[in-house]
Design a protein that fits this description.
The chain is mostly beta strands and 402 residues long. 4% of the residues lie in helices and 53% in strands. The relative contact order is 0.12.
Length: 402
């Protein structure tokens, strides 16, 4: 089956490559994206009996289609995503990351369709990024998101930007299957999720955001009401599965970034009501960059952030409740865009540690090689990440961009 998927993707790639870019009186079309092969090599046997061990292979197809009219008033975007995994059926999935129409006027913009919206400034945790649902089967770092149906009306003025969001159609969080890695003692039953709203996943959510810059300061503030993207996981009656419970929440938050020469200071904070007892959470820190070190073109950035989460142990998974993150980012600033980021999170109360390394380098004009490694240490049986402690892995992705 995996071979058939690879053949289909290669055929599709050969078909779309000739229409890379096209311009004329009717506007311009651009086709880009990538096809990739990815392997994860787990360094330890799994903790739970029904989990697979050894290497895991995936193929990924992520094309991007963009169209813009000649007057630039109308834009259309379509970005599908498909992964075929050799082991975990839950990780084999298709999603539409973007499929929208955008109208741009003199003072107003209107977007309707499926889109991804990113808010925030922090490196180690994206607290304020509430619009899109996390695609958990893709990665543990919270950097991958499912496409969200929306109507977005925005205006940019001298005093800042205002965005209003109407969000129909809730996307449930993805979780590893029973035989997949990064799984709790029992799997999550995604087919029987429970919603606080009487219309379940059909509840219409709302959000608004203000953003602006004041000299060296970039500031954003938002309000969200709707179904929370982060479920509470509650065991079923015979404790064989976790059932996701999605609550209606009110959430407000701010994100701030201050730039001063080589310093970059970052802060994100939220207050949430409706998911148990009201709580606040925050993440903040800095990045300092040493430019052209050792008389080369390379830059080295030193990062440090502190994470706080005021929830109790009965709340959803809160691995970043009192964590300190430190890291180093090296950018070669070469033609191949070589970069390495390494760091770790340590829980200041339990001393659990999560190590993370990411490296990337282009090969020629169209190929890209990525290496990532993640390791867990120091957890005990009553801690959140204990279930993942044997899921240390090294991942390699080789992609052909077009």
């Amino acid at each position: 089956m995996l071979g058939k998927i690879c053949s289909f993707i290669i055929l599709a790639l050969l078909i779309i490559l000739p229409v890379k870019s096209n311009a004329g009186e009717f506007g311009s079309v651009d086709v880009s994206g990538f096809i990739g092969i990815e392997t994860r090599i787990f360094t330890q046997n799994p903790r739970w009996e029904d989990q697979d061990s050894g290497a895991e292979l995936s193929v990924i197809f992520n094309p991007e289609f963009h169209y813009q009219t000649q007057d630039c008033n109308h834009q259309f975007s379509f970005i599908p995503f498909y992964r075929k995994d050799s082991r975990d059926e839950a990780r084999t999935h298709f999603d539409v990351r973007e499929a929208y129409w955008l109208w741009i006027g003199d003072e107003w913009e209107v977007l309707t369709g499926i889109n991804k919206v990113f808010w925030g400034t922090a490196e180690s945790r994206h607290l304020v990024n509430i619009i899109n649902q996390s695609d958990n089967v893709e990665n543990l770092d919270g950097e991958d998101y499912l496409g969200q149906p929306m109507i977005n009306i925005g205006t940019q003025r001298d005093w800042g930007r205002i965005d209003l969001y109407v969000l129909p159609g809730f996307r449930e969080r993805t979780f590893s299957g029973s035989d997949g890695r990064f799984r709790a003692v029992v799997p999550v039953d995604t087919k029987n999720a429970i919603f606080e709203s009487s219309v379940n996943e059909k509840h219409i959510d709302f959000a608004t955001r203000y953003s602006h810059y004041f000299g060296d300061w970039d500031v954003g503030a938002f309000y969200f009401y709707g179904t929370g993207r982060e479920p509470r996981l509650i065991a079923n009656t015979n404790a064989t599965k976790f059932i996701p419970n999605y609550d209606l929440i009110h959430q407000t938050g701010i994100d701030v970034q201050y730039t001063n020469d080589s310093w970059l200071w970052k802060f994100e904070g939220i207050a949430r009501e409706g998911q148990g007892k009201a709580f606040i959470a925050a993440v903040g820190g800095f990045e300092y960059t040493f430019y052209q070190v050792f008389n080369t073109y390379s830059d080295i950035g030193v990062l440090a952030e502190y994470q706080y989460d005021g929830r109790t142990r009965e709340a959803p998974f809160t691995a970043s409740d009192q964590d300190l993150f430190t890291g180093i980012r090296w950018a070669a600033n070469d033609i191949q865009d070589t970069q390495i980021l390494g760091g770790f999170n340590i829980d200041t109360s339990t001393h659990e540690i999560f190590y993370n390394i990411e490296a990337q380098r282009r090969i020629g004009d169209n190929y890209d090689l990525e290496l990532s490694a993640r390791f867990f240490a120091g957890s005990s049986a009553n801690e959140d990440v204990y279930a993942f402690e044997r899921d240390d892995y090294i991942q390699i992705r080789f992609a052909r961009y077009f």
